[in-house]
Every structure is written in structure tokens, then in C-alpha cells.
Structure prediction request, 263 residues.
Amino acid sequence: MILTNVGSVPGKKIVEHFGIVQGSTVRAKHIGRDMMAGLKNLVGGELKGYTELLQDSRQEAMDRMAEQARQLGGNAVINIRFATSSVTQGAAELFAYGTAVRVE
Amino acid sequence: MLETILNYSDLSIFLGLMVIGYTCGTIAEKRHYKSIIKREKELVKLMVVNAEGRFAEGAVRTSFLVNGSTVVSNDYFKRLLAILRNIFGGRVKAYESLIDRARREAILRMKEEARSKGAHMIVNLRLETSTIGRSANKKKQIGSIETLAYGTAVVMNRP
Prediction:
């Protein structure tokens, strides 16, 4: 599966379009991590736990998107965009969408 | 000495938190900027553009998506400064440096991932910022900030 965020797959020709595919996941960290993040809020700096969490969830959202593209018969997803939103307190939604295509 | 601290325990906790926040925050920021500048110099050869590249046929071997992200938050002292700033308006310097740092770090992480996979350049860079965490939905407080950088890494046939 080829994933790109440009309008085409560089160096390859698109032979078929399958429309929009998307994947999303909503995740929260357990309370211990949230408390650690609260403490870290005092001194500032990077919140490693959250960075990890978001990277994992983004990977999962991308996997789901790729799975959907595979089911449609595509072998690449182009023009991928990411979005993040906080749905409730302490939970984040990671969302990825793109166009499924088949390349040579 | 101890008596006065105990008498004004609320105030002393507040002051203590401010001092801790100020010292730790300042040290961490300086250190972070140093490492950012050093790594940016190392990675300056890896080109990043935010336009869609046009490539001649057969010039590209593979392409794949790379991303890098950071979640950062401000220290207690700077957050207080920002709240004060809200009253008078104007530039909130405390947050400017924080977001600048986070964004550069995210780009660096993306570049590091691209380099470790053998890419020659990154096209169509996109940057995104969002607030997450406990206080994300409260209007008054700015919670933790996530910055995300992503783009398409390209491996050329002939570098």
C-alpha cells in the first residue's frame, strides 16, 4: 500500500479512482498518565505520554484507512489529510482521509 | 520563618509553584532550542518543500508518507503571564516560543524519519496544530498543544 499526501503517486500512473476512504480512532490515556501530564504541566515541556498516544492512534487511523482502500480494490491512497479534535475531556479523535486509487 | 510559611500556606504554595515553573521551564526551553538548532543544521541537506513536486517519469523509485508530532505544554509561570496578558492584550510571547519550539521539533522528527528510510526529499509538507488534553474544551485555559507535520518522502533513482 502506497500512501502519499500529494495529488498523485510520484513516478507512477493512476489507472483507477475509488473515491474517499477514511479512518478514525478516539483514544484516551489511563488516569495515571493523565496525572503525570498534569504534573508535567507545572514545569512545561513535552508530554511524552501524549505524543506516544497520538502517534499510535494516528497509525491506527491510517491502518483503517488503508484497509478500507484495500477492500475497494485500491493499492494506494493519495492526498491524505489529517485532522485532530478533542471530543470529550481527556480523549482525542484522530482522523485521516484520502482518495483511494489503483496505480500501475 | 517556618511559621510564616505555614500561616500563608496558600500563598507559599502558589509562589513555590511559580518558582519551580519558572526555573524548570526556562532551563528546559534553552536546552531544547540548543538541540533544535544543532539538529536543524545536521538535517539541512534534506530538502523539504510544501509544493507538490512534478517528477519526470522514471526519476522516482518509491514514495511514502512520513509524519512527526509533538505534544507540549507551558509551565506554570508562563501560563500565569499569558492570563495576565489576556487583560491588557498584545503579543503573548510565552506562547509564541512554545509553539515555535513544538513546530520545529515536529518537522525535525519528520525529517529524521525520512532520513532513516533513505528519502532524498520531502514534498507537500503540511503543518497542523490542535489543542488536546483535559483543559482542551475550556475556553479560558490553553491546554496541551499538539503540532503535527506530515509530507510525502520521495526516494529518487539517481540522487
User: Anything to note?
Assistant: The longest strand of chain A covers residues 14-28. Residues 25 and 94 of chain A are 5 Å apart (CA to CA). Chain A touches chain B at residues 2-12, 34, 37-38, 40-47, 50-51, 54-55, 58, 62, 80-86, 88-90, 92 (CB under 8 Å). Residues 2-103 of chain A form a domain with the Translation Initiation Factor IF3 fold (CATH 3.30.110.70).
